[in-house]
Amino acid sequence: xxxxxxxxxxxxxxxxxxxxxxxxxxxxxxxxxxxxxxxxxxxxxxxxxxxxxxxxxxxxxxxxxxxxxxxxxxxxxxxxxxxxxxxxxxxxxxxxxxxxxxxxxxxxxxxxxxxxxxxxxxxxxxxxxxxxxxxxxxxxxxxxxxxxxxxxxxxxxxxxxxxxxxxxxxxxxxxxxxxxxxxxxxxxxxxxxxxxxxxxxxxxxxxxxxxxxxxxxxxxxxxxxxxxxxxxxxxxxxxxxxxxxxxxxxxxxxxxxxxxxxxxxxxxxxxxxxxxxxxxxxxxxxxxxxxxxxxxxxxxxxxxxxxxxxxxxxxxxxxxxxxxxxxxxxxxxxxxxxxxx
Length: 341
Hints:
Elements: E1 2-8, H1 11-22, E2 27-34, E3 38-45, H2 59-86, H3 91-103, H4 109-120, E4 135-138, H5 145-158, E5 163-167, H6 175-186, E6 190-192, H7 196-203, H8 206-209, E7 213-217, H9 226-238, E8 242-248, H10 253-264, E9 270-274, H11 283-292, E10 295-296, E11 298-300, E12 309-311, H12 314-321, H13 326-340
Parallel strand pairs: 4-7, 4-8, 5-6, 5-7, 8-9, 9-10
Antiparallel strand pairs: 1-3, 2-3, 11-12
Helix pairs in contact: 2-3, 2-4, 3-4, 4-12, 5-6, 7-9, 10-11
């Protein structure tokens, strides 16, 4: 079974790419519109198990085949459900994922889960090179925003990008020194602003407009405090930025869904999961993406600043829920090696 994504300016072009690469037997798993890019189509091609032609066998064999297919569906549904329950995924979300997985008619639990996640959720990693909108990192206190800002800045420097870092977290004890320590190591200046007008003025400077990337670290906020949310809204409304909710793994799924809904009211459409290496319950991340209507960007999987970001997609997210077996990983390495020869 092969699962592959194709990106093109139009749906017609993307479908032609699917046919050229996988043939007419490919199954369309999902389609997504991507801002400024076009459309992304994910297709699957499954090796067919020899079946029975109508009229070829007697009724007994037909029933045996049906029972085998039914048993396989039950096994797939049971394994996916068990995995999602261990990660404390809400029941309604489990039902949607399992129904989607079974509807795609794939033959292994891991591939079925991967295809369902690809179909239900959006993945929009931020490009590592090229000029982009300023990134504004939002989230609860302790979500990992400052570390995320340092990681984005480090990635930019490694890729020879001209980057600026801004903090509005000037009231919290230790907030500025922590980020300042990172930016000094990178040789990047740290700008400090205290109100929306100062941020607007800073971003309007000619020298700042020359930066490839600007990263804005916001203070931790309570999404259920109306005054704090109004303050954040004033920052977002004052400048043209890409707001991203930084969300740590391991939190209660229902609560994360409510938090994401609150941030979505501010116009937040992207989320960055953190603590992927430490959390053992990731249901809250799926709940946040679903309830808040947010796309996954990068994920943070280590406390190390260098190489601390991973671009999330359906396969990588599936690995966190249902890790590859040793045999699967070895097969994938061997297959990749053979293709490269």
